[in-house]
Amino acid sequence: MKALVTGASSGLGREMARILSKMGYDIIAVARRKDRLEELAAELDTNVEIVVADVTDIDQCKKIAERANDVDVLINNAGFGVFGDLCSTDLDRELKMIDTNIKALHTMTKLFVKEFKKRNSGYILNVASLASFFPGPLFGAYYASKSYVLRLTQALSEELRRENINVHVCALCPGPVKTEFGKVANVSFGTGNESANKAVILTCHDVAEYAIKQMFRKKQVIIPGTMMKIAAFLRRIVPDKALARVVYIIQGKKCMAR
After folding, report:
1. Domains of the chain, first to last
2. Contact 150, 128 (CB under 8 A)
């Protein structure tokens, strides 16, 4: 058994690689930081192949996808966010984010699922976000990119179901997680209340463990944490205009001092 994980150098990708390795999967670890991948490889018990790649380069994604016939599980985890109002954020950085969060994930999903269909088996987990359910002022491009991930996954899942194909595709939609994401996006998810933080901000291990368990149970949309499940439900009954206003207030409190 073999699993390929993008963004495996840190955060959820690293933790999912650890968990899958403990389950007996050999790992193909993909990321830009070779030193981090080597650290991961040294701690895992199963075989680990390191692939140093930048998934914003679609040619590199296509090269990685050539391994699809030897892979049982694909984890599309690579991604990041750009925080700020749309008129002020850096366009080049946003386009790089779109290349990572959307174009790379789309390419990998499409090429891997075509191979998985041929043998009628395989799992794909696309890391979206709870943000995919909401309008996201002050984080607009990131929220939109994760909405793309969720809707693409849901559409593909239905296509496979209609064809009676035994390939499972799912979307992981976590809320705040203790990773490098906040540092990269220049935001803080803390509320100032330690007990509240524990209820809302989950650990990488807990999210990764829950995600993999639900993936193998063939859950289509995976939302870790009771509070996040409640938030996802409430969005169904609150108008988008009101949600946008609430999200703006919440996001405004996240801005880290520059």
Report:
1. 2-252 (3.40.50.720)
2. yes
